Automatic annotation (TrEMBL):
This is TRAP transporter substrate-binding protein. GO terms for biological process: transmembrane transport. Gene3D superfamilies: Bacterial extracellular solute-binding protein, family 7 (3.40.190.170). One of its GO terms (cellular component) is outer membrane-bounded periplasmic space. One of its GO terms (molecular function) is carbohydrate binding. Keywords: Signal. CDD domains: PBP2_TRAP_Siap_TeaA_like. The keyword DNA damage does not apply. InterPro entries: DctP_fam (IPR018389), TRAP_DctP (IPR004682), TRAP_DctP_sf (IPR038404). Residues 1-22 form the signal peptide. The keyword Signal applies.
Amino acid sequence: MKLVNIVTLGSLFAALPTMSSALEITLGHTLALDSHYQVASEKFKEVVEAGSNGEITVSIFPQSQLGGEVRMIQSARTGAIGAFITAGPPLENSIPQYAVFSLPYLFSSVDEANGLLQGEVGDRFLALLPDAGLVGLNFFSVFERSVFGNKPINSLADMRGLKLRVLQGPGFVQTYDALGAQATPMAYSEVFVALQNGVVDGAEASPEQVVQDKFIEVIKDFSLTKIHYMPSLLVMSKPIFDRMTPEQQELVRDAARQAKDASLEAYNRTYEEALVTLREANVAINEPDLAEFQTVAKGLWPNLLASVPQGEENLKLIQDAIGQE
């Protein structure tokens, strides 16, 4: 009897290291449950949990439950959270080279931007993150950002005097000011009420965000100005990533690749569905000639690049990769 107890107790202690090595990755993002961020998060969770045989679990926290993007960046750097999905601009304070992606009309389409970011150029930018205590796992789909609100934009003249909520950052604020609008940074959570009460005339976002975040209820127009193609990416805490085994790290990277594919497909689908939904809700879809917008906005590039480390070098790298001059 005593021998059996000793053997049983020994077996229990032998199991303890495996039990204690279990890892939970908290994964946060700021978007809605029907966004491409959520679709990608669920794919990442599926692949990691299936491939780790229970050693790693992934808990998803959407809709800013872990805080906004800046807060999640700070939390990941200290290891307080495991991973997050972010747009490019919030990373600019930590990695100022990312500001090159905030140049207006840098790309001509979603496909062009995604093609570049899924190649060698994207890899070079992901490689900048470890110096900030982060690990860039993969770029997800860019957002094609246009103007929505209660006034149509059919020409550059229609931008004049419009009070538009824009992302905080020189690439957004200076661009909209140059195009004649009054660029007005404010918290995203305040935009719905600001539109409802007429505090702002409009804002800028991708069409599926307008639908998913219910802005469709308080606007009359969506104008396809396509001023920015804003990157998004899946980032992991370096302190947590470094504690993983090489096999676990490779599993996480493979899951990120599969999540990327899910993101690209979901964004294209929800983008097209959103335009249909907007039309069905009697929101006018305006398609201005973008040539005059591009001329004015691209004239800002030298000033914007002056404050971006390796700005001219990285712009040339991007242009060479996509065949622009």
